[in-house]
Amino acid sequence: MSDYHxxxxxxxxxxxxxSSFLPVAVKHLSNNVDAINKELGEAVLAxxxxxxxxxxxxxxxxxxxxxxxxxxxxxxxxxxxxxxxxKFVQEHARRRAEQRFPLETTLHAYRCGHKVFxxxxxxxxxxxxxxxxxxxxxxxxxxxxTMEYTDTISTIFASTYLAQSRLLAxxxxxxxxxxxxxxxxxxxxxxxxxxxxxxxxxxLDRRQSFCVVLAQSVDPAExxxxxxxxxxxDAIDKALQRSAARRLIDIRNNKVTMVFSGVRRVSGxxxxxxxxxxxxxxxxxxxxxxxxxxxxxxxxxxxxxxxxHKEALLALELANVSHRVVxxxxxxxxxxxxxxAGEEFQRALPPWSDEFYVADDKxxxxxxxxxxxxxxxxxxxxxxxxxxxxxxxxxYSRLRKIYDITHLDAKSFHPLTELLIVADCRHHxxxxxxxxx
Length: 437
Known about the structure:
- The chain contains 18 helices and five strands.
- The chain is α+β, with helices and mostly antiparallel strands and 437 residues long.
- Helix 3 packs across helix 5, helix 7 packs antiparallel against helix 8 and helix 13 packs across helix 18.
- The chain folds into three domains: 165 residues, Phycocyanins (Globin-like, Orthogonal Bundle), CATH 1.10.490; 127 residues, 2-Layer Sandwich (Alpha-Beta Plaits); 97 residues, no CATH class.
- It is elongated, with a radius of gyration of 35 Å.
């Protein structure tokens, strides 16, 4: 307890101890302990529904025990006892933090208790007062004591609760980080310690399926700020609160890293569910525009989670502002190959590729757009022209221009395939530069 609260509470007690009414008042309170405790419990339950509505079976018994502890402490102090460290308040605060019971709810209960104790002590002082003047002075002294007492226990409770919450968060963070490391980096199945950790965390149930999700800000530099990265993780966690899938979320390698698990099959006789990642993607699509997200495919066991992690990383690398949420299974094979080939493939492009890119830029992108439309129309010029809202002769003219530059006839399958790969290579390169910028 702080020196300030010790001094102020002692000062309030000195004012009371100098009054002749105190012994009579203490006797009155002692004779009505049961009534005070009953009124205290009823007042808290009537004014604060959170206690009755809690599903935690320990909340109401703790409340019934903690209220009378204050009655005992107040009588001890009024009887001449010295101000202590309020260990019973600290212990109650630690239990409440461990139960995740809201801090403000208990502080509200203390304010209710203040009203009850104030009324009983005021009644006791008026009973003992010898004159109206004495009554006024006594009531003022009692009001000062009850106020200081409530302020002291509220401060002790809040500081202990927050300290315990931080401690629990640190412990959970360490456990979460260790669990993520085991799941994402892989583990030796003969390691009994690791097996125990996974079993206790519920990850060795063979009926589960898993997927990995990685997220980061559109601006990667944002993730270097721990507070901003944590806010992003908390926002994603909040958006997924109604999801039936279990989730493990933390910041890892400057990315919000998530491992999701769900029941793959209820029993050996039921068909497996294979849409965990798909359902997660639907929910994550609601996240703000400033977030890029990569999602793996479903995997059937913890041993496959490292593979899912690599899939999520590839999907994240291919996400951009126009396609923010990418699932690995939805990445076209050609685009994936170009991404994996990277700069090596860039250096192997044919000599005519630069001239082709320049010509497409001058034509405002219509050359590559024509190649894509022609391919999407199954190499049908009339259908491609219809889709582009141009005359068929325009399609022929553009294909001729492409031939003049590349010496590849796009009306044939293999040349068209090569042209599309070169076009996609440029598109992929542009996406990468946008992310890097």
